[in-house]
Each structure stands twice: as C-alpha cells, then as structure tokens.
C-alpha cells in the first residue's frame, strides 16, 4: 500500500468515525512509516536498510 492510499483510508476512517481493526491500523501506519514502537533501534534499522537499498541502486546505475 502506498503512503497516499494509507493516508486517505485513515482520514476517511477518522472523519466518518469508523472502526479499524488493529492489524489494518498497523498496516496503514506502517505504510505511512509511523510506528508505535518507541525504540530508536527500529528507526535506525529502517534507515540503515534504506541507505543500503540506495547504495545498491547507485551501484546498479553506475553511480557513486
């Protein structure tokens, strides 16, 4: 699910006071890169994985 789709679904649910199951809410929030986990290590792991993906993409495209 893309960020905009998740945002639209969450806005609709909040605006119309709809209930959302916990798994669906988690999926929406993950799509928007929002986490309930206060741990910095989760964010660090996410950022490291994103950096790794970008480096691979740069190497693939002949950059760096």
Explain how this protein is built:
69% of the residues lie in helices and 0% in strands. The mean pLDDT is 85. It has 64 residues and is an all-alpha fold. The longest helix has 21 residues, at 40-60.
Search tags:
64 residues, mainly alpha
Describe the protein's topology.
Elements: H1 3-15, H2 22-31, H3 40-60
Helix pairs in contact: 1-2
Give a short summary of the structure.
The chain is mainly alpha-helical. The protein is built from three helices and no strands. Helix 1 crosses helix 2 (about 20-30).
Number of strands: 0
Distance between the termini: 30 Å
Mean pLDDT across all amino acids: 85
Based on CA atoms alone, the radius of gyration comes out at 16 Å
Largest sheet: none
Helical residue percent band: 55-70%
Task: Tell me the count of domains.
Answer: 2
| SSE order, one letter for each helix or strand | HHH
The coarse overall form would be: elongated
Strand content: under 5%
**Low-confidence region ranges:** none
Query: What count of helical segments does DSSP give?
Result: 3
Structural class: mainly alpha
């Amino acid at each position: 699910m893309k960020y905009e789709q998740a945002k639209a679904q969450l806005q609709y649910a909040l605006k119309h006071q709809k209930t959302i199951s916990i798994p669906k809410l988690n999926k929406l929030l993950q799509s928007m890169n929002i986490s309930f986990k206060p741990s910095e290590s989760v964010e660090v792991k996410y950022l490291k994985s994103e950096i790794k993906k970008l480096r691979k993409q740069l190497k693939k495209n002949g950059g760096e």
